[in-house]
Design a protein that fits this description.
This protein is α/β, with parallel strands linked by helices and about 425 residues long. The chain has twelve helices and 21 strands. Bound molecules: pyridoxal-5'-phosphate.
Length: about 425
């Protein structure tokens, strides 16, 4: 459930009208709902009640400082994938002991910063990385806590660009190598094995692939315990899907996910780490945009809007579906079939193809729903379009939590070398 609802014919985020935000902040603009972030976090946390669990929010989904601070106050930890994310998490007040570092290409700088901060664990993805962490920790006189990201070779049955748990993917350590890796950790002086980690993909709409993968991990952990490794945490990754399409069958609830986890892992004497991203953030944000033009080609009818693929790349990148609804409620039947497109010179700058909608006109505001995760955080300035504003609503108040970049700021990022000065 989210807090974007119509009131007296106008779409609101909690108690603030999106029309008001658009008038005051301009469009396109991302609008987030504090209450929705809190609700998603609390529902997820409740699903793990009774289990020793740390929720490390996968902040690549949405790393705005206001979002992170909202979640930090709920008690969230963070799953970070770069030194930039590490610094953002620390700046938002997330304690280092609740931060795990993931990623297939951790640099020396990232390893040093994470050791200095004293993070909970490194989720390693290769033997080369393990050797480097051991060397750096040695130089710093520390022992690095290591969890090995294993690749359980299961098909998550999700979009190929967000599937990560098959042996052909670049992620994790191949299943048959895990025994050797833990033996190697045992032999190195500046690393210690504390956990096992996996993350099989994103936007999973079925519990079965999770269940298969988690069961494999249970077998592995029992074997590691028998070999004398002190494995204390199992990091299950993220990946639980969210509803994007109105009226379609909903993905499994956090409650049923938590129950399955308790069934599969309940009798292992290990704490659990989970890394939800999309589930927390996805439906906590919308992208508000204005229809600029209506255009008809021979066979096609287009609504050209002021947002583009640089602001929200998910449809172009993953064929993702976003519900599009008018900010001014229209209770009439959907009467036109249109493509919602952005202004960028790319054929993939399309938000929705052949979408049935109520008729709109230039100047009308629309909201693209489910735009809280992998949306602002993936935006770029392609076509010299400045990064757009982000707004957080809390009850009847709202704040601009990232101001719209100006064109001058964008240009000022470049420098012209001396030899070109006139
Ligand atoms: C992206 C990612 C997540 C979060 O995935 P969601 O589908 O957003 O829950 C968790 N863990 C790792 C390692 C990731 O790369």
């Amino acid at each position: 459930m989210d807090h974007f609802q119509y009131r007296n014919g106008k779409l609101f985020a909690e108690d603030v009208s999106l029309e008001q935000i658009a008038a005051e902040v301009g469009t396109p603009v991302y609008v987030y709902s504090t209450a929705t972030f809190q609700r998603h976090y609390r529902v997820f946390a409740k699903a793990f009640e009774g289990l020793d669990t740390l929720i490390c929010y996968a902040m690549k989904a949405n790393s705005n400082q206001a979002v992170l601070t909202t979640l930090a106050l709920e008690g969230a930890g963070a799953d970070v994938v770069s030194v930039g994310e590490l610094k953002r998490a620390l700046a938002a007040g997330i304690p280092a002991q609740k931060i795990v570092l993931s990623g297939v290409g951790k640099t020396r700088q990232e390893i040093v910063a994470s050791l200095k901060a004293g993070i909970k664990q490194f989720n390693i993805e290769s033997e080369a990385e393990l050797e480097l962490i051991n060397i750096i920790a040695g130089e710093m006189g520390l022992i690095a806590p290591i969890s090995v990201r294993v690749n359980p070779d299961v098909d998550a049955k999700t979009h190929e660009k967000i599937s990560t748990g098959k042996s052909e993917n670049k992620f994790g350590i191949p299943w048959h190598r895990t025994g050797d890796i833990y033996a190697r950790i045992g032999a190195l002086p500046h690393v210690t094995a504390v956990g096992v980690d996996l993350h099989i993909g994103s936007q999973l709409t079925d519990l079965e692939p999770f269940k298969i993968a988690f069961s494999k991990v249970v077998t592995l952990v029992k074997a590691l315990h028998a070999d004398g490794h002190d494995i204390r945490h199992i990091d299950l990754g993220g990946g639980l899907g969210i509803p994007y399409v109105a009226g379609a069958e909903a993905p499994p609830s956090p409650g049923s996910y938590g129950k399955m986890v308790a069934n599969v892992l309940g009798d292992l004497d290990c704490s659990i780490i989970v890394e939800p991203g999309r589930l927390i953030a996805g439906n906590a944000g919308v992208l508000v945009s204005e229809v600029i033009y209506e255009k008809t080609n021979d066979s096609k009818h287009f609504y050209i809007i002021d947002a583009a693929m640089n602001d929200l790349v998910r449809p172009a990148m993953y064929d993702a579906h976003h519900e599009i609804i008018p900010v001014e409620e229209n209770t009439a039947e959907a009467s036109v079939t249109v493509d919602f497109v952005g202004p960028i010179c790319e054929s993939s700058d399309v938000f929705a193809k052949n979408r049935k909608t109520t008729a709109l006109a230039a100047g009308d505001l629309i909201a693209l729903k489910s735009a809280g995760a992998y949306s602002a955080s993936m935006s770029s300035t392609y076509n010299s379009r400045p990064l757009i504003a982000e707004v957080m609503v809390n009850g009847d108040q709202y704040a601009v939590v990232r101001k719209r970049q100006t064109i001058e700021e964008l240009i000022a990022l470049d420098t012209v070398p001396n030899w070109l000065s006139r």
